[in-house]
Amino acid sequence: MPEDKTSPMEPLEPDNDIEIEFLDQEDDNQVVEEAPEGLEPVPGVGIEEESQHLKAELDHVRDIYLRKLAEFDNFRKRVEREREEHRLAGVEEMIRELLPVLDNFERALQHANDDSGAFLQGIEMIAKQLWDTLERRGVAEVNPIGQPFDPELHEAVQRVEDSEHPPGTVAWVMLKGYTMGDRLIRPAMVGVAVEPDGNASNGGGR
Questions:
Q1: Burial class, 146, CB count within 10 angstroms (exposed 0-12 / middle 13-18 / buried 19+)
Q2: How far apart are CA 92 and CA 157, in angstroms?
Q3: Is residue 122 within 8 Å of 110, Cβ to Cβ?
Q4: Is residue 177 within 8 Å of 154, Cβ to Cβ?
Q5: Where along the chain do its domains lie?
Q6: Mean pLDDT by 10 residues, the chain (206 residues)
Q7: Strand 177-180's sheet: what is its strand order?
Q8: CB neighbour list of residue 42: distance below 8 Å, 6 or more residues apart
Q9: What one-character DSSP code corresponds to residue 19?
Q10: 193, 149 Cβ separation under 8 angstroms
Q11: 49 CB-side CA count, 13 A
Q12: Which residues are CB-contacts of 192 (< 8 A; sequence separation ≥ 6)?
C-alpha cells in the first residue's frame, strides 16, 4: 500500500491584518427609537417625550394665533367704529353749514305775501347761499345740454327728435346731475336727441 505522503493539516495562523469588530447586540425586548425624518433628535429624549414637547409647542403657537386673531378682530371693529364716527362727523358738519340756509328759508316764507319782490329776492339769495355751501364741499353741477351723451354721467329718460342738436347729444335736461370730487352723486336725467322723421312734430318727444 503506497505511503500517504499527505501531511497533516496545520492550523492556520490568524492574519494580523484582519480586524474583528464585536458589536453590542441590543436586548431583543428593547426597541431602538429613531427620530422622525426631518426632526432633529433630542439627546436622551424618546419619541413619546419629543411628541409631548412638540404638542406643547403647538398648543403654545395655537394660543398665540388665537390671541392675535382676537386682537385683529378688535382692531377691525375699532377701525369700523372710527370710520363711522368720521362719517357722522362729516354729516353733522354739513348739516351745521346748511342750518343758516334753513333759517333764511323760514324768514323768506314769512314774507311770502309781500308783493314788493322781497320774497323772490330772498329765495334767490337762499339758493345762492345753498349752492355756495355745496361748492365748498366740492360739489359740482352736471348740466350737459348740447354735450354728447355719457352713460357714466347721464341717465337717458327719453329720446327726443330734435333737429337743433346732433343725434346722440343731450337735447334737454330734466334734472341736473351732481358730482363731489371724483364721485358721481347723482347722474343727470336727460333726453337724447335722435334723427327726426316726417311724422314727428318739431322738438317733440317719444
A1: middle
A2: 34
A3: no
A4: yes
A5: 46-137, 140-206
A6: 49 51 48 48 69 90 93 94 92 88 86 78 90 91 93 94 89 93 93 78 44
A7: 139-142, 177-180, 183-186
A8: 35, 49, 50, 53
A9: -
A10: no
A11: 8
A12: 149, 156, 158, 159, 160, 168, 169, 170, 171
Overall fold of domain 140-206: Nucleotide Exchange Factor Grpe; Chain A, domain 2 (2.30.22)
Q: Report the alpha-carbon distance of residue 185 to residue 171 in Å, rounded.
A: 22
- Cβ(151)–Cβ(185) under 8 Å? no
CA 173, CA 154: separation in Å to the nearest integer? 10
**185, three cell numbers:** 352723486
CA-wise closest residue to 153 among 175, 178, 181, 172: 178
Q: What pairing do the DSSP bridges indicate for beta strands 188-194 and 154-161?
A: parallel
Fold adopted by 46-137: Hemagglutinin Ectodomain; Chain B (3.90.20)
Residue 47: CA count within 13 A, CB half-sphere? 7
Euclidean distance between CA atoms 51 and 132, whole angstroms: 74
Query: C-alpha dihedral over 87, 90, 92, 94, to 10 degrees?
Result: -140
pLDDT in tens, 91-147: 888 889 889 998 988 888 887 777 777 788 888 899 999 999 999 989 999 999 999
